[in-house]
Amino acid sequence: MTSTDFRRNSDNFCYRHPDRQSFVLCQRCMRTICPECQTQGAVGVICPECMAEQQKSQTPSQKKAERRWARPVALAARDSRPLVTYGIIALAALVYVTQLIPGLPVQELLAFNSLFVMPSAGVAPFQPWRLLTVLFVHSGFFHIGLNMLAVWMIGRSLEPLLGHWRFLALYLLSGLGGSVGVALIAPNVWVVGASGAVFGLLGALLVIGRHIGANIRGILIILGINLVIGFVPGFQVAWQAHLGGLAIGALVGFIYARTRSARRRALQVALLIAVAVGLFALLLVPPLIYTY
Questions:
Q1: CB 261 within 8 A of CB 73
Q2: Residue of 159, 5, 195, 34 lying closest to 86 (CA atoms)
């Protein structure tokens, strides 16, 4: 497209400020809006007209939730750049590149199998780091590509809302939940990938979006489709990790939603630690019910 054609195309400029170039669309009406006209939503941004329309159609409970969320909270991040999201993607990409080097047993060292976290089984060395390193090792290009695309799409909206450290805690706890889910439901099964953590991000986004009165229908549809795929014959998907990550992600999202104020920061940290301790405690269950 020539520069003249570009200038004549109104879709390349804010509809409220025709002299301002922008490529950001309102998530509801899909019109182009400049930074001044953007209001951050649960996912994406909303233009002033759509925001006003959304507020008019809100139920009393939604208005109450929005007022609670608008109070001074401890979730707001000073740096709105999704730095942790970029870091997760970069680390996963680096690990994948090392997997391509002949002779390096990267996947064998980082993949997860419940036998490595159950010393009482006595059939494998105790290697607890696999509970989290599994998040950064993948089985192929499309596997890592789809997972990191999901991390990027969710993280660029969720991380600025939560802050860097809360987002990182959510990601790691969700991944830990996915590994524990595999240990509980499918012991002695090898798994790789960040799917458990990705489902945890979706679960947290679902809970937080519901808490602030956002439209979560799209998130429910995406979540439902991905959960169903895990049970379709022929798809080699670790649905146990999906369920575990989803449950822990939703739980962490609920903790964040209910402990937003600065005065509850200590309670928030204590609850996150309790979630981690609870997950490690669940690893004591499989040796009691399975024979290795």
A1: yes
A2: 159
179: number of Cβ within 10 Å: 30
How many CA atoms within 13 Å lie on the side-chain side of 139? 10
Residue 37, pLDDT score: 87
Listed in sequence order, the residues at least 6 apart from 123 whose beta carbon sits closer than 8 Å to its beta carbon are: 115, 292
What's this model's pTM, rounded to 2 decimal places? 0.71
| Domain of 17, in residue numbers | 13-48
User: 121, 183 in Cβ contact below 8 A?
Assistant: no
Q: Is residue 198 located within the same domain as residue 269? A: yes
Task: Tell me the pLDDT tens digit for each residue of 203-240.
Answer: 998 898 887 766 666 666 766 766 666 555 555 677 88
Catalytic (active-site) positions: 195, 242
The answer to whether the CB of 213 falls within 8 A of the CB of 166 is no
Same domain? 163 vs 106: yes
Half-sphere exposure of 80 (CA within 13 A, CB side): 3
